[in-house]
Write a structure and sequence with these properties.
With about 140 residues, the protein is α+β, with helices and mostly antiparallel strands. It has three helices and five strands.
Length: about 140
């Protein structure tokens, strides 16, 4: 009589290591942060919401530069792809102040950043850190 041996469980696929970098308080840092995100997305395979992710990275980095990074300080961008396929983007700054979704100003040049993050990501929020804060957003796979 033959006995049935169930197959060994398949181990979960390893998650890629997070990508992180620090950037100076300089407008060129927004482009550099976006390029880091673009490279991470390419390395991790096609992500169907790459345009949304890149726009949110740009907005969060811009907000950090304009409102969260004191003179001569840096901000940190961290990207992590979880085992569940959720992509998390975090921007750490060392400034004080609160984060809120604003209304566009009369010149239509400001106030849209977090509104876009709210509209494009599946979730977003703010966590305290000392000093400063972490503004994050997350994208679920389609």
């Amino acid at each position: 009589m033959e006995t049935f041996t169930p197959p060994a469980p398949t181990p979960p696929a390893p998650t890629p290591p997070p990508r992180t970098a620090v950037f100076p308080r300089d407008r060129r840092s927004v482009r550099a942060a976006r390029e880091l995100a673009r490279a991470a997305l390419a390395e991790w395979g096609a992500f169907d919401r790459a345009d949304d992710v890149l726009l949110c990275v740009s907005e969060l980095a811009t907000n950090a530069l304009l409102h969260g990074v004191p003179r001569n300080r840096l901000f940190r961008l961290a990207l992590e792809l979880g085992a569940d396929g959720v992509l998390r983007v975090e921007v750490h700054d060392s400034g004080d102040g609160t984060v809120r979704v604003g209304e566009p100003g009369p010149d239509a040049e400001g106030g849209r950043g977090l509104g876009l993050v709210h509209a494009l990501s599946d979730d977003w929020g703010v966590r305290e850190r000392h000093p400063g804060k972490i503004v994050w957003c997350a994208f679920k796979p389609a």
